[in-house]
Write a structure and sequence with these properties.
By secondary structure, this protein is α+β, with helices and mostly antiparallel strands. The protein has one domain: Hotdog Thioesterase (Thiol Ester Dehydrase, Chain A, Roll), CATH 3.10.129. 23% of the residues lie in helices and 46% in strands. It starts with 11 loop residues before the first helix and ends with a strand.
Amino acid sequence: MGHFPGHPVMPGVLIVEAMAQVAGIMAYLASDEETRKKVSYFIAIDSAKFRKPVVPGDQLRIEISTTLNRRGIWGVDGKAFVDGKLVTEASLKATFAPAE
């Protein structure tokens, strides 16, 4: 039903989490067998901007572009669109590490 009673919106944290999930799948598919045995850890969110509210019934289209892939650290820029309009953007970082 949304985040606020009487004013339903999708929480921004869930939009950023969706971006992180898309980025994690992309990084996993681009990784070698050894890396795929590791766990992905979300390590940073930078420059998150929420430009328009997302409401129930909206369909998010998420685009991810790689900005960094060095020494086990992945950086991506994520953008979320509704009806072709940018609603959220953020720079994200993650790493793969052995499961303990």
